[in-house]
C-alpha cells in the first residue's frame, strides 16, 4: 500500500523528466529474492511489461523457492534472469537439474552466471568460468548470459586488492562470448560514484572487451543500510561517498537516492554514445517499493525493456 501512496503523491507522468536520464533508464532491470518478491502483490502494477528481473540466489535458499518465483514472474510477462552462483552448486548434475527445472517450469532462457559470495565452495565449482565451460547453458539454448563486473576489484579473486584476476576473467568471458550463441553482457556491483565506473568501462573498451555494461545502482535506502551492504559486498573506493555523506547530519537522517550518480552516468552516455555503458540494474537494498518508485519518477515507467542489449 505504501508504494501506491508514494506514486499518488509523486506521479511520474506529471514530473519533468531529464531526457538523458530517461534514455539511460530505458530497459532498466531490477533484482529480487524469493522472500522479497513475496511481499509484492502484483509486479505488473509497478514494473513496465517485459522488465528483466534478476532473482538472487542466496546460499540456503531452496531451489524450489527460486523456481517458484521465476514461474510467477514469467507468467506475469517479465524476462526472468535467475542467478547461478558457482560456489553453491554441488556438481555438474546439480547444475543440469537447476537448468532443467527453470526451463521446464518457468521457460527461463536467461541467466546471471557468477561465482557467488560464499567463502568455501560446496562442491566442484568455484568460478563462473567453470559453469560456462560445462556448455550446459548453450546446450539448453539460453539466449542471454550475464556475468559479474567489479569496477572496484574483488578481493575474492585478487586478495592483494589488484585487478589482475578480474581483468583476466573478463578477457576469458569476452572470448567465450564470441563462441556462444547467447548474447552476453556485464552487470556490475552497485556503485555510489560515477568516475571510477566510467574509467573502468573506458579501460575495458581500450582492452578490446566490447561486452555491454549494465551498471549496478543501489536504490533508495537508509544510509546505514547502504554502508552495511557496501562493506559486506566489498564495495571499496566509492564507499567514501557514503562515509562523507554520513558526516553531514542534515543528510544522515534522509534516505539516500541515486539521483546524482545516475545523472552523471546519463550525461556521460549522452556525450559518449559509443560508450559500452548500456543501461542500469537496480539493487533494491532499501526495498523494492523505493527502487521502483524512484525509477518511475525518473523515466523508468516509459522505458522499453527490450531496447537494452
Can you tell me about this structure?
This is Methylenetetrahydrofolate reductase. GO terms for molecular function: oxidoreductase activity. It comes from Pontibaca salina. The protein has an eight-stranded parallel barrel with strand order 1-2-3-4-5-6-7-8, surrounded by five helices. The protein has helices at 2-9, 19-25, 34-37, 63-75, 92-106, 128-133, 136-139, 164-179, 194-206, 223-232, 239-246, 249-252, 259-271, 288-297, and strands at residues 29-32, 52-55, 79-85, 110-114, 144-149, 183-191, 213-218, 277-283. The protein has a domain at 17-185 and 193-214 and 256-279: TIM Barrel (Alpha-Beta Barrel). By secondary structure, the protein is of the alpha/beta class. It has 14 helices and eight strands. Residues 1-14 and 302-307 have low confidence and may be disordered.
Q: DSSP helix count?
A: 14
CATH topology of the domain at 17-185 and 193-214 and 256-279: TIM Barrel
Largest sheet properties: 8 strands, parallel, barrel
How large is the share of residues in beta strands?
15-25%
Order of the strands making up the biggest sheet? 1-2-3-4-5-6-7-8
Poorly predicted regions: 1-14, 302-307
* Annotation, overall tally of beta strands: 8
Series of H and E elements: HHEHEHEHEHHEHEHEHHHHEH
Helix content: 40-55%
- The level-1 CATH class of the domain at 17-185 and 193-214 and 256-279: Alpha Beta
CATH architecture of the domain at 17-185 and 193-214 and 256-279: Alpha-Beta Barrel
Shape summary = globular
Mean pLDDT: 85
Structural class: alpha/beta
Q: State the separation between the terminal residues, measured CA to CA.
A: 33 Å
Organism: Pontibaca salina
GO molecular function: oxidoreductase activity
InterPro entries: FAD-linked_oxidoreductase-like
Keywords: Oxidoreductase
